[in-house]
Automatic annotation (TrEMBL):
Residues 103-278 form the FAD-binding PCMH-type domain. The keyword Ubl conjugation does not apply. The keyword Oxidoreductase applies. This is FAD-binding PCMH-type domain-containing protein. It comes from Circinella minor. It holds the Pfam family FAD_binding_4. Keywords: FAD, Flavoprotein, Oxidoreductase. One of its GO terms (molecular function) is FAD binding. PROSITE patterns: FAD_PCMH. Belongs to the oxygen-dependent FAD-linked oxidoreductase family. Residues 16-51 are annotated as: Disordered. Its cofactor is FAD. It comes from the Eukaryota.
Amino acid sequence: MCQFCGVDPAFAAYFDDPADTNNGAEEQQQQQQTEVTGASNGDAPAPNFFRLKPTNKRYQAGGRITTQQLTTFGSSLSTTSRVIMGHHGQAYNNAIRRWSKCAVKRALAVVMVTSAEDVRKTIIMCESHGLPFVVKGGGHSPGGASSIENGIVIDLSLMTETFVKADEKQVVAGGGALASHVIKAAAEYGLACVTGSTSHVGIGGLMLHGGYGYLTGEYGYNFPSLAVDNIVAAEVVTAKGQIVWASKDENPDLYWCIRGAGNKFGVVTKFIIQAHPVASSVWGGSITYSGSQVKEVVEALNTWFAKHNVKAAAAVALGKGADGKAGFTVLPFYDGPEEDAKNNFEPLLKLTPTAQNTSSMPYWKINTLSDEPNLYAGVPIRFASANIKPQLDVDHIRTALERLDQLYAEEPNASGTGSLILMVQPDGVMKHKRTDMAFGWRDDHFDVGIAAVFTDRNLEDKMVAWAQDFGEYLSSRGDSYRLYANHSDFNGPSAREYGINYMELSKLKQKWDPDNRFAKL
Ligand SMILES: Cc1cc2nc3c(=O)[nH]c(=O)nc-3n(C[C@H](O)[C@H](O)[C@H](O)COP(=O)(O)OP(=O)(O)OC[C@H]3O[C@@H](n4cnc5c(N)ncnc54)[C@H](O)[C@@H]3O)c2cc1C
């Protein structure tokens, strides 16, 4: 009887595989092979909990485990953890749900872990049964980097415990924490951490692979400025099932790797993040302009940016406006009082927007303004990566708007498509050398995320191609080689996601994950 739902797994139709008639012989052979391989790798012998004789012959195609074994395995984990399988109905559907509908994949099982030890056991179980696995933090990768068909999801969503070490101004957060957990915990101490501009994104993906946010410019002035730069230490479960710390003093090479390429080197079960003081009230919101104002808006953005005020940042969204044409929504941010903010943003505020909704608010709140209800976008979305070197060029942006208009006209199903240019002062990003950590894009370019949003799933291939093409166009005024992994969605090529650090990463991959148990480089 399943410990989770009371259903007898033997009747779980989802796992039935009529083609399988080998009575478990294949699995036993697989187990033997795994033991041999494990021994030759010098791994410690695997614990007994998964060395279970198959009790039925229902295997998932591509997998080597039975529902019974998964159920028994689940009972070896912490009492708060769960193993969710297809026969769990709605609980399973919830467990494989993702921010983008494109990322929903039918996993063999979702292991909702609650400790590093649970993660370790799951990795060893997967190794023993020859099962592929992925790690899920906040589940926001639109292309499905945290979901898998017929494999195991190590789901960190229950590992969100977050607290502040006030003396050190550090936030300790579980590997599955969302930006909102970190921001809210820090806010109680007048502190903030660099996270992205949306509060329900997982810090796992965001911090380990870069992490541009409103505070990137300001913190860069005195402190490290990308989210990844603020990882002081991390507890990591490795491909071999070891639980280790990675910091400048412990396993410094692993620390180097996870800061930029975390999903390829281990499961981070705990982050120690440097926090910094933030004003009790910041200013922001949204200001909308029509596409016909492109010249004045781009010139105003350039004038504003040239003031080089590190307290200010702006996310500039290009997307469909109320008039049905591509236009601008500027999300301004200022870490300070409204009066100073309005002075700073004067070049933009003196234009005539089509809509404006700005005010002072606590820092945690500004990160919720772009949130979706219930953490899910509810539609298929794919991402692409681009970048633009300051200053913005009127003709370049005008053509970008025209390309969007052309798409809206051709594909009414893709009218949510757009892109976001994050304008932050680059001082702090460039404070690090390119080789200080795996994340090596230490330049003065604006990061640009492209979101292809469509209602018809059949458009996915076409929209991915469109988004990449649009990204190449935008990056023609930037570094056209550079890909930001959080926006290229880990689809590579890795050499472009890691640039100068790719060779060193390849070498260290051989040390920490020679069998590519985690995402490939
Ligand atoms: C609405 C939205 C807003 C965004 N805003 C910003 C922004 O302002 N700035 C910015 O820089 N980016 C932004 N992004 C991009 C975002 O940083 C990436 O999508 C990020 O990878 C999502 O992380 P996640 O943990 O939610 O996703 P997941 O899909 O869970 O994970 C993404 C990858 O990271 C791995 N991973 C996650 N957690 C861990 C962990 N603890 N240990 C090891 N590997 C792990 C997964 O295996 C997967 O490969 C945004 C994305 C969305 C959808």
